[in-house]
Amino acid sequence: MIENKETKKESLFLKAIPYFDKYGILLLLLLMIIGLHLLQPEVFLSWRNVTNVFKQISWQSMLALGVFIVIVTAGIDLSVGSIMMLSLMVLAITSKAGAPWYVVVLIPLVIGMFCGMFNGLGITILRMPHPFIMTLGTLYIFRGTGNLISGGVPISGFTEEVRLLGNGRIDLTWLGLKESQYLPVSVVLIAIVFFLMWAFLNHTRTGKWIYAIGGNPNAARAAGINVNKILVIVYSLCGLLAGFGALILAGRADSGYPNAGLNAELDAIAACIIGGASFFGGRGTVLGVFAGVMIMGILRNGLNLNDVSAFWQQVLIGSIIVIAVYVDVLRKDLGTRK
Amino acid sequence: MFSSNKIILEAKNISKYFGTITALENVNLSVREGECLGVVGDNGAGKSTLMKVLSGLYKPSKGELFFNGNKEVLDSPRDSQNLGLEMVYQDLALAGNLPIGENIFLGREPTKNLGFLKILDYKKIKEMSEAHLDKLKIHVKSADQKVEELSGGQRQAIAIARATAFNSKLVIMDEPTAALAIKEVGKVLDLINGLKKIGVSVIIISHRMDDIFAVCDRVTALFQGTNFAEAELSKTSRDEVIGWIMGKK
Fold it and tell me: Which chain B residues are Cβ-neighbours of A222 within 8 angstroms?
């Protein structure tokens, strides 16, 4: 009898693994929110602070999502911060030159996509031994180019249309809310982009092949998938998202500045890892990336609210990365056959 | 005997040179419908080169290939797949992070229309793969199970299921039991016998006499890139076949 109960308990535990696998990171996020709410009950969950967190993570979440699809293919993109900076600088220059707003809005997306395509072509056609090397090179190339074309000085002042994505507000007074309780446009944008990416990765053939390449590139090749073509698409998409990031940042900062996106690639990678993406490819979810970005955003915000020094924030974020990956190692021990 | 007399694949006078190296010289080979042909030979005898010529990965330097009596020139493995020939690679070529069903249909996933968009038809993938696994009597918990959760023998079975999912007529298997635990070898051999029963021909490369004598109808030996000996299985013995591999008649 006792033995029966034990096995039942164990099988329940085993059955819970896939759910824990999928939603465990959301649990962590929830616990953090509750914890920070208890520490700062007046402020933390206030409308103003919550929208603030979303505005802060808006452009970072675009970079993280781009790096995520690259990581799914077992690659890495170190150049996203530089792509964003270059796109932002080109945007600023076109804006200063007096181009119409729709050109100014489109240009960072085009530049970002071409930078990403450059990475993808380098990795596939030049047969770089690892994406790390190609994108490490372009990290310097793109930032250097951005400084060259702008002279290394900030260029400020954009029109209202250009700033809409990063700075726009959706009025909610018609819902009976106060005027200060608006919805930032960037929140809506995050929701739309993440949903589109989820649909793309999970419900199209190309998305499925991206996961297959990460799982076993030889299997993908044997199945007749053009692996190089898919990789170029993936890196281009990553660049496009960095271009989106530039557009949002332009709205928020109202300025193109040389230090934009400095070290942002590391934050983006960290968010993916915390969110459960595997460096060996083929594993990770869009929801996980969102949770990873939120955890980093909330942690920074919460620690600021509680007057914790920025140095402690670094220590804590680093610790979370290590712990999150260790939990993943434990999960693998339980979940897969040896 | 499950095999009929219809020859589905015939290779005539195949030669393959790599620069000055002769990998194959005037090799002939034929497979009948529902027949299992064992190909044996020492390392470097030309077995793998011959299989790569049959699957279209290599172009022969000389010689001709006939599928169902029609002469065919293969430019890529896609061409041989379209003619109904599939390879099961030694490293299995499965993506461990994907479920069984998605591995079986990888690269050829069924889709449905959502407005102007084509989206994956998960229901169809699951139903079709489970029906196919049933047909081959491959037992797994569910087609949604990830391949990395399976044992080596189960993975081999999935690789074979993948190779036969699109009405293939001939499956080439390179050392299908080499990496398996002993108790799983029998299951894979049963699966090969099952394929013969539904009329699929099999070419199996193997070093294991036990495998050859459990499933093959005929065995052919290559030695230094040439046809060395061939016999119906009932008319030969293990010792004789082992002798062929070493170049003794």
Answer: 87, 89, 93
Rg (CA), chain A: 21
pLDDT at A313: 86
Across A49-184, the runs of DSSP E, i.e. the strands, are 155-156, 169-170, 183-184
Task: Look at residue B1 in the predicted model and tell me its pLDDT.
Answer: 45
Whether residue A282 and residue B111 make contact (CB cut-off 8 A), yes or no, is no
- Set of chain B residues whose Cβ sits within 8 Å of the Cβ of A282: 95-98
What would the pLDDT profile of A252-264 be if each residue is shown by its tens digit?
Answer: 999 999 999 999 9
Hey, is the C-beta of B103 within 8 angstroms of any chain A C-beta? yes
CB-CB under 8 Å, A336 with B95: no
Q: Classify A207 in phi/psi space as left (phi over 0), alpha (psi -120 to 50) or beta.
A: alpha
Domains and CATH numbers, chain B: 1-84+167-249 (3.40.50.300), 95-166 (no CATH)
B95–A contact, CB cutoff 8 A = yes
Count of C-beta atoms within a 10 Å radius of residue A200: 15
> In chain B, which residues have their Cβ closer than 8 Å to the Cβ of A224?
77-78, 81, 107-108
Tell which wins on pLDDT, A335 or A232: A232
Torsion of CA A47, A48, A54, A56, to 10 degrees: -170
In chain A, the domains with their CATH numbers are 42-325 (1.10.3470)
Q: Output the pLDDT for position A7.
A: 60
Query: What pLDDT is attached to residue B138?
Result: 87
- Token digits for B181? 């635990």
Q: Which of A34, A51, A56, A43 is nearest to A305 (CA)?
A: A43
Which pLDDT score, from 0 to 100, does residue B4 have? 66
Q: In angstroms, rounded to a whole number, what is the distance separating the alpha carbons of residues A228 and A69?
A: 15
**DSSP codes joined into one string, B94-135:** --TTSBHHHHHTTTS--EEEETTEEEE-HHHHHHHHHHHHHH
In the structure encoding, which two tokens stand for residue B17, read together? 């040179």
- Using CA atoms, how far apart are residues B231 and B161, in angstroms rounded to an integer? 29
CB pair distance less than 8 Å for B96 and A282: yes
**pLDDT band at B43; cut points 50, 70, 90:** confident
Rounded average pLDDT over A155-176? 89
Q: Are A214 and B97 within 8 A, CB to CB? A: yes
Report whether pLDDT(A127) > 50. Answer: yes
Answer yes or no: are the C-beta atoms of A85 and A247 closer than 8 Å.
Answer: no
Nearest residue of chain B to residue A224 (CA atoms): B107
Burial call A227-263: b when 16+ CB within 10 Å, e when fewer: bbebbbbbbbbbbbbbbbbbbbbbbbbeebbbebbee
Report ipTM for this prediction: 0.84
Q: Residue range B70-85: average pLDDT?
A: 87
